[in-house]
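Re: the 138-residue chain
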Amino acid sequence: MNTKLRRLVCGTSGTLLVIALFMPWTEVHDADRTAWGLWRLTLPLCAALAVCALTTAITGGRIGLNRPDVSIIGATDGLGVITTVTLAWLLCYDFPAQASRQPALVLALASAAAAAFAAADYGPLRGAAWFPRLADDE
């Protein structure tokens, strides 16, 4: 995926994820619940993913986090996969019995998946090294 498309998808996903966090995810007994009221784990995961996706969109993602070879793109990819799997699991297997699903939950799931796919490194599938050497190591 080229850099402009990655930045566009990550920016859009991060923005939609932030919007989804403020919308109701479920309706239980005529009361709406947001991400925090439904599952305590989802709000921090979605917020962290939104911040990483927006940072990837703004900076291009080539910023080292704690080491030069760990970039914000890697954090967006990892958090995107974890958030997507968590939301899918909660949506399919751990959803409250008396609750109805709202569109914001599906929006959050789709945004997390889009951010994960946009930030993923598909180079090893095309024959690139799994762990590329840094330019400073030579």
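DSSP finds five helices and three strands in the chain.
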